[in-house]
From TrEMBL, chain A:
<feature type="compositionally biased region" description="Acidic residues">
    <location>
        <begin position="282"/>
        <end position="294"/>
    </location>
</feature>
<feature type="compositionally biased region" description="Basic and acidic residues">
    <location>
        <begin position="302"/>
        <end position="314"/>
    </location>
</feature>
<dbReference type="InterPro" id="IPR003439">
    <property type="entry name" value="ABC_transporter-like_ATP-bd"/>
</dbReference>
<dbReference type="Pfam" id="PF00005">
    <property type="entry name" value="ABC_tran"/>
</dbReference>
<feature type="compositionally biased region" description="Acidic residues">
    <location>
        <begin position="340"/>
        <end position="360"/>
    </location>
</feature>
<protein>
    <submittedName>
        <fullName>Spermidine/putrescine transport system ATP-binding protein</fullName>
    </submittedName>
</protein>
<feature type="domain" description="ABC transporter">
    <location>
        <begin position="2"/>
        <end position="232"/>
    </location>
</feature>
<feature type="region of interest" description="Disordered">
    <location>
        <begin position="281"/>
        <end position="432"/>
    </location>
</feature>
<dbReference type="InterPro" id="IPR017871">
    <property type="entry name" value="ABC_transporter-like_CS"/>
</dbReference>
Automatic annotation (TrEMBL), chain B:
<feature type="domain" description="ABC transmembrane type-1">
    <location>
        <begin position="60"/>
        <end position="246"/>
    </location>
</feature>
<keyword id="KW-1133">Transmembrane helix</keyword>
<feature type="transmembrane region" description="Helical">
    <location>
        <begin position="228"/>
        <end position="246"/>
    </location>
</feature>
<feature type="transmembrane region" description="Helical">
    <location>
        <begin position="7"/>
        <end position="30"/>
    </location>
</feature>
<feature type="transmembrane region" description="Helical">
    <location>
        <begin position="64"/>
        <end position="85"/>
    </location>
</feature>
<dbReference type="GO" id="GO:0005886">
    <property type="term" value="C:plasma membrane"/>
</dbReference>
<keyword id="KW-0472">Membrane</keyword>
<dbReference type="InterPro" id="IPR035906">
    <property type="entry name" value="MetI-like_sf"/>
</dbReference>
<keyword id="KW-1003">Cell membrane</keyword>
């Protein structure tokens, strides 16, 4: 519907846009995402008609857009500052655009009432903008923009001025309205969460160029440029060259990953923190500086895997907590099932499930499925089958077998270490080994940074729920080839 | 916490210094006697004389005509100039030139205008004073409105255009209402400045149509009379009213926006 072809714009020495081409479809919720100064706002202003490009073409439904002045374009913009007219009431603000079309008064009144009802501000019609709250102002701005029924609605950082609670509300509201009115939305934002949660497709901008255009999930799971891998979501990036389907990371050895790049190509390997599974060997000196109360001494000896989610049961029963190990690899993104293991046969599976769902607060498009196995404790194989993606990884078995055995021998802490050492031995216990440098818990997720010898920056690991890993623990990191994405450099 | 009383002394001294002459002037305007310096009882007779003085009445009418005309002219032109400077140029030189007449010495402006009028063979009269006052009034209006424009939100104008308003409609429906307090303040300033402007009026007025300050000047040349005091008191009253109205208006518009 909207075609942007080779648009460039320079401001003196600065190139704001360089050969940008995009194709935005009818009825789509499209996001332009990038850090500030990447040119996305310039593109928005070009579309609105406040800026003209140095070169390139923009067509709307096949007709040239650039030759039209701003006030003749069938495009409306919702300003970041909302730009409500302070000297007019809410109703007058909304009616402004219709009055400029010289529509009959009755029709204007009708449409204003209709749109104000739609955004839930019917009673505020007589107020002035400065008497409204931030969220209400935004609704007025939105109503004023959509009442003209534009072909295209541009939104400049629509949620940035709102506080967190109102943001979540408005996010849903925006999606609902977009669905209802069927207008094509183009949103500009520097906030990847905003883009991911709102948009059907996202164009990632960097330094005036489009890095990648994709759906949110694809953008997150299959970044095609180093910038996208680093900008969209947290990511661990490893430098090296493609080797044997994975990445030869030099001192780090060959790291598992996937990507159709020719052998030997210089590349980055991107591994999401929540895709890394942690195998905990405890603090070497058997001290528990962080949480001595929660982790009794035996915990340090028995290798544990990072718990995915805090189970109420395990908290209640300390002797379970020591020996229990839980799968680290929860799958925040899309289709993959989350393995939630419960070695101690739980009395109430429902409770565990609801806890997990409440905790999972990831950039998810679909809710992770929680595969629960209250009674599976005797069979390691069952545990493995719960994590199909792990089977593909080179670390196959090392973690899962340990888990299984751990689960099976939940009552016997002595058995678990042996089993896990056995399975971990051939590969040195994971893709990488390191030491936990820091553990923090927020948003229902534990963020663990692990210092790995031979890598300057720590590797970030995210685990659902509160973790029992402590600072200073020796750990092994596991991930499957599917979880590492090779990005050409 | 109480401040030491001593700190208030400079404050009161300043006010006494500023307002003693004015108080004396107002008091003397009610003098029954003929001397402007010796008070000899209360009387309103000088106000009566003032009302009967045809020269003063004529001067007052001339002044009001000039002030009203130049205010209208300078407000319209000054506002347009300010908008043009703020929105359509980035030239700092033009910006400075726009407000220069406000700080130019009156003498320079007066002589310059007189020479210019002579060069274009324009007759002198109220119209010439009116145009002359519009020149410096415009500079003040421009300065005031320009300041307000730099603080105004350009996204409002963009929003207006985005909603389908032509540039003209945008100016009248969005830009101007935003500027209204600044425009009003500029207009009041231009009016009060024009009413008591002497030097430029002295150069550009015709001898047959003197403005009030010129009339007062010629009267004072033969000595100050209580009549002058009465006139000054009236002018003072007008100035005070205007200042208070201006303050009220800005407070009103600020509470609205």
């Amino acid at each position: 519907m909207l075609q942007i072809t080779g648009v460039s714009r320079r401001f003196g020495e600065v190139t704001a846009l360089s050969e940008v081409s995009l194709d935005i479809r009818q009825g789509e919720f499209f996001a332009l995402l990038g850090p500030s100064g990447c040119g996305k706002t310039t593109l928005l202003r070009i579309l609105a008609g406040f800026e003209s490009p140095d070169s390139g073409a923009v067509t709307l439904d096949g007709a040239d857009l650039l030759s039209l002045p701003a006030h003749r374009r069938p495009i409306n913009l919702m300003f970041q500052s909302y730009a409500l007219f302070p000297h007019m009431t809410v109703a007058k603000n909304v009616a402004y655009g219709l009055e400029r079309e010289r529509l009959p008064r009755a029709e204007i009144r009708e449409r204003v009432e209709e749109v104000l009802a739609k955004v839930g501000l019917a009673e505020m019609a007589g107020r002035r903008p400065q008497q409204l709250s931030g969220g209400q102002r935004q609704r007025v701005a939105l109503a004023r923009a959509i009442v003209k029924r534009p072909r295209l609605l541009l939104l400049d950082e629509p949620l940035s001025a709102l506080d967190k609670k109102v943001r979540a509300e408005m996010q849903l509201e925006l999606k609902r309205l977009q669905h209802e009115v069927g207008i094509t939305f183009v949103v500009v934002t520097h906030d990847q969460e905003e883009a991911m949660s709102l948009a059907d497709r996202i164009a990632v901008f960097s330094a005036g160029r489009v890095e990648q255009v994709d759906e949110p999930v694809a953008l997150y799971e299959r970044p095609r440029t180093p910038f996208v891998a680093g900008f969209v979501g947290a990511s661990n990036l490893f430098e090296g060259a493609v080797h044997d389907g994975g990445l030869d990371g030099g001192a780090l050895g060959v790291l598992p990953g996937t990507g159709d790049l020719p052998e030997g190509t210089p590349a980055l390997l991107s591994v999401r923190p929540e895709r890394i599974r942690l195998e905990d060997f405890g603090v070497p000196d058997e001290e528990s500086p962080e949480e001595p109360a929660e982790s009794p001494e035996p915990a340090a000896e028995s290798p544990r895997e990072e718990p995915v989610s805090e189970k109420p049961e395990s908290v209640e029963e300390p002797e379970t907590a020591e020996s229990v190990e839980e799968a680290v690899s929860e799958e925040p993104v899309s289709e993959k099932p989350e393995s939630a293991e419960e070695p101690e046969s739980t009395e109430e599976p429902e409770t565990a499930e609801s806890v997990e769902e409440a905790v999972s607060e990831e950039p998810v498009s679909e809710k992770p499925e929680s595969a629960e196995e209250p009674e599976s404790t005797e069979e390691p194989e069952t545990a493995e089958s719960a994590e199909p993606e792990d089977a593909a990884g080179p670390s196959e078995g090392s973690g899962d077998a340990a888990e299984g055995s751990e689960g099976g021998s939940g009552d016997d802490p002595g058995e678990a270490p042996d089993r896990s050492k056995d399975s971990g031995a051939p590969e040195g216990g994971g893709v990488l080994r390191g030491k936990v440098a820091d553990v923090s818990f927020y948003g229902g997720v534990s963020h663990i940074s692990v210092v790995v010898p031979g890598r300057p920056a720590p590797v970030l690991v995210a685990a659902q729920g509160a973790t029992r890993v402590r600072t200073g623990s020796a750990v092994a990191l596991h991930w499957a080839a599917d979880d590492g994405v090779l990005v050409p450099q | 916490m109480r401040r030491p009383r001593l700190l208030y002394v400079p404050f009161w001294v300043t006010y006494v210094f500023l307002y003693t002459p004015i108080v004396v002037l107002v008091a003397m305007s009610f003098n029954a006697g003929k001397s402007p310096y010796v008070f000899a009882g209360f009387s309103l007779k000088w106000y009566g004389e003032l009302a009967g003085n045809a020269t003063i009445r004529e001067g007052l009418v001339n002044t009001l005509v000039v002030a009203a005309g130049s205010t209208v002219l300078s407000t319209v032109l000054g506002t347009l100039l300010a908008v043009g400077l703020a929105r359509h140029t980035r030239s700092r030189v033009l910006d400075a030139l726009g407000v220069l007449p406000a700080v130019l010495p009156d003498l320079v402006l007066g002589i310059g205008l007189l020479v210019f009028y002579a060069a274009v063979k324009m007759t002198l009269g109220l119209h010439s004073v009116l145009l002359a006052h519009a020149v410096f009034g415009m500079a003040f209006v421009t300065a005031v409105v320009r300041t307000r424009l730099t603080h105004a939100d350009t996204s409002l104008e963009e929003a207006s255009r985005d909603l389908g308003a032509t540039p003209l409609a945008t100016f009248f429906r969005v830009t101007l209402p935003q500027l209204a307090p600044g425009v009003a303040a500029g207009a009041l300033l231009a009016f009060t400045l024009s009413v008591d402007e002497f030097v430029i009026a002295f150069f550009t007025a015709a001898p047959t149509t003197p403005t009030l300050p010129i009339v007062i000047y010629s009267m004072v040349r033969f000595g100050v009379t209580p009549e002058i005091n009465a006139l000054a008191t009236l002018l003072l009253a007008v100035s005070f009213t205007v200042v208070i109205v201006a303050q009220r208006m800005t407070r009103l518009t600020e509470s609205l926006s």
